[in-house]
Amino acid sequence: MFSEILILGGTNYVGKSLLYKLLKENRKVSIISRSCHKVKDHPNLEKINGERILILPSLKNREWEVVYDQTCYSLEDAELSCLSFNGKIGTYIFTSSQAVYPAGKNLCESDYNPYDLNNFHKIERAYNYAKRQAEAVFYQKAYFPVTTVRFPIILGKNNPNKRFQSDIELILKTNTVSVENLEARLSLIDSTDAANFLYWLHNKKYQGPINACSLGSICLKDFIKHIELYAKTPLHINEVKYQKYSQHPYLVHSAWEKDRRLLSVSISNHWYMDQSQALQMGYKFHHTHDWLPSYLKDIVHDSSS
Q: pLDDT tens digits for 21-72?
């Protein structure tokens, strides 16, 4: 069976939404995942169940128009893809992250240049460094066109990771929320827009990093005000400091793993992206204020019922 498109992942959240959009457009798609049972059978869908590290070497004779990589989290994953797909695909679209950037305002694609990274001897496990290394491998070692999509924190009701919902449940239970910096502004994107953007990219022939986030950043103070509004109660707000993690905004997530009172979208400094490149190409992102309030309203309602 020849498949026009391969998705590494595609059985959860954004990847699953992307898969269904492609199938709706009558595209032939293959997916590689350990969780293929989560996706319904379809005449245009080939399910390859298993680990990418075991499956990719066996596909050396296959060719693909587009490969979407939703499951690359390390230097090793990226190197395996380069070995497996070099010269055999049209476009490789890698889901990267805003985590490649340090703190900053209106971060643009040039604020992290993956060609500048040349240390591949030490394998990094921290999420932000691992994504940096993966991007560097693709741009320096791949013999195929690569697009790296830098998403911020993605929020959506179909997220199998219940971390944010557990945040809200604890907030409603204790009437307390902890954050690092109430004035810090961040980028977000809703899961539907993220899937739509990935789908939109597949025939754009764009190469290089590209930021993808909702229009308009939001500060944590306003984020919490929405929760208070829908919970119909004022919250006690603790501003806490985690000096160990403050050198990079994303590392506050590491603090969250140790202190669940910390809001999981909490950041220590302003950390939001500029999406001018995607806008100039013609994509129209939703504005944060068009989707976040209704999302928070639903999450608060579900968490309190």
A: 999 999 999 999 999 999 999 999 999 999 999 999 998 889 999 999 999 9
Model confidence pTM above 0.90? yes
For every residue of the chain, DSSP letters joined together read ---SEEEES-SSHHHHHHHHHHHHTT--EEEEETTGGGS---TTEEEEES-HHHHGGGGTT--EEEEEES---SHHHHHHHHHHHTTTEEEEEEEEEGGGS-SEEEE-GGGS-GGG----SS---SHHHHHHHHHHHHHHH-SS-EEEEEE-EEE-TT-S--HHHHHHHHHHHHTEEEES-TT-EE-EEEHHHHHHHHHHHTTS---EEEE---BS-EEHHHHHHHHHHHHTS--EEEE---GGGTTSGGGHHHHHHH-TTB-TT--SS-EEE--HHHHHTT--PPBHHHHHHHHHHHHHHHHH-
CATH architecture entry for 5-153+191-211:
3-Layer(aba) Sandwich (3.40)
Tell me, which fold does domain 162-185+216-270+287-304 have in CATH? UDP-galactose 4-epimerase; domain 1 (3.90.25)
